[in-house]
Amino acid sequence: MANQGQSAAEIVFDRATKVYRGAPAPAVDELSMTVPAGEICVLLGPSGSGKTTALTMVNRLVEPTSGDIRIDGVSVAEQDATGLRRRIGYVIQQIGLFPHMTIEENVATVPQVLGWKRDRIRDRVRELLDLVGLPPREYGGRYPAQLSGGQRQRVGIARALAADPPVMLMDEPFGALDPITREHMQDEFLRLHEQVRKTTLFVSHDMDEAVKMGDRIAIFREGGHLVQYDAPERILTAPADDFVARFIGADRGLKALTLRRVGDLPLEPADATPDTAPLAATETLHTALSALMTSGTDRLPVADGDGRLVGTVTLDLIRAEAGRPAPHEGEVA
Amino acid sequence: MIAAAGPHPVIPDFGPVSRCVQDNGFFCTDWFTANWDSVFWPALVQHVRLTVMAVGIGFVLAFAAALLAHFKGWLERPVGGFTAFLYTIPPLALFELLVPGTGVSVLTVEIALVAYTLMVLFKNTLTGLREVPPDVRRVGEGMGLTRRQILVRIELPLAIPSILSGLRIATVTTISTVEIAAFIIDQGLGSPILQGLQSPFNTQFVAAGALAVALALAADGLIVLVGRLLTPWTHARRAV
Ligand SMILES: Nc1ncnc2c1ncn2[C@@H]1O[C@H](COP(=O)(O)OP(=O)(O)O)[C@@H](O)[C@H]1O
Ligand SMILES: [Mg+2]
């Protein structure tokens, strides 16, 4: 990218607690976790479990009652709130585009208040609109009311990325979109994240979204308690308690299959002359299982990217894999 | 030479005049054009001047008060209540109240006119400033805009439609109140209307009245036009 700015930053919650004035109990209770630089951490939990509160303590829209939050080792409380926020991208469900500004003006907001030169702002805005798939020539001069919901959300993301912040906070960013657009935006964001690698806190109440987007998932329950903080696979295969097990749903076994690929199984040897079309080794076990169900057999051939047969997947193999808990991934705060 | 309507308006002796004037027609174009320079144009200019001054001063005061009330919420009730109280006083009574202090003067008239603009300008400006959707404000704050930047970049532009609709009402109301001010000062289109009403001759008050209506419509249209230029986002068409 032309504008290679600050790299990602590590975020540490250190017993961060928020008790709203007059509230009988904390909204976030002694939250401690470490989000490694460059990862996407999904904050998942039912409504009212303190996800938004936890998220907005990072950019100080909410001040912690006690405890601390550090970005790359520096406590947010010690930083000037305005300066801090300009180094943190912020995207919310309702998007909050400025209705009276064109798309370009919206995206240019933070660079402008940071005092960038006009040319630099213009180049950066164009680069970002291209990055999120909105050609600046066509969309730059439009107003938010002239865009679809998905397009607006892209502008919201471009605007949050404008000053190349090392941290992104996203509060149910795709929650208001229809399912098809939402999936599309999830894919787009993952692709974007591959390129820009911001440390991202992503609030969601949708298990499928969390499994898809998260390098790690932090599961909250009412009262702002963090009950499990782990890789998606670990959460699906080894839920910490009944609450997590219920929250992720009875089909967690099936969901876990979406995280593993056919090629990773110890496949049986390929049959010489298979009578069905082969599966790609890059397909998920979820897809493989579905293919086995519809084919009516209990074994299917597997082919690599060049169409060469590399082995055979069987129902027994998938069942064995599904029963195996994921390896523990290490540093959990 | 045709005389202007004098201070004691009876049908004047115009000398040789048109049939229309002799018959006291509803509206005599020849008399109107002959008296344009001496009667109607000066009255129109005075009318515009009185209105612009009143709305201008009223806007500055109400705008400042609304900004204060926007930041210090407790000011809304007292200021809003006071401007509403001013608005309830009948114009002639207010003129009478002021004359002992400020005399039979333009100042008296302007004080009263300004007083009447305050309520709607204050209310609409404050409403406009508060119209910013909460999410928009939250994102602005979360992006690191200062309070002043949120005001200048977001709240004020989004308040423009509401402020302008207040200005439309204030302007049109002031234009008609200026007509009543002719009871106090010999200025504005109210003067020929008053004189015309006291005489059986039709053209004078018909013409002055029509001019006042035209002025109100023109001022209203002008503000609408300015509003369209200032708020392109409110009428941007969905391009596909
Ligand atoms: N500004 C606030 N003032 C008082 N209570 C709040 C405020 N914001 C959130 N809460 C309360 O804190 C708890 C957590 O809210 P929130 O962080 O918004 O949860 P979530 O995002 O998981 O739905 C809820 O009980 C909510 O009612
Ligand atoms: Mg929330």
From TrEMBL, chain B:
It comes from Actinoallomurus iriomotensis. It is a multi-pass membrane protein. InterPro entries: ABC_transp_perm/SBD (IPR051204), MetI-like (IPR000515), MetI-like_sf (IPR035906). The chain crosses the membrane at residues 50-71, 78-98, 104-122, 158-185, 205-230. It is found in: Cell membrane; Membrane. Signal peptide: none annotated. Its main location: membrane. Belongs to the binding-protein-dependent transport system permease family. Keywords: Membrane, Transmembrane, Transmembrane helix, Transport. GO terms for biological process: glycine betaine transport; transmembrane transport. One of its GO terms (cellular component) is plasma membrane. Residues 44-226 form the ABC transmembrane type-1 domain. It holds the Pfam family BPD_transp_1. This is Glycine/betaine ABC transporter permease. The keyword Transcription regulation does not apply.
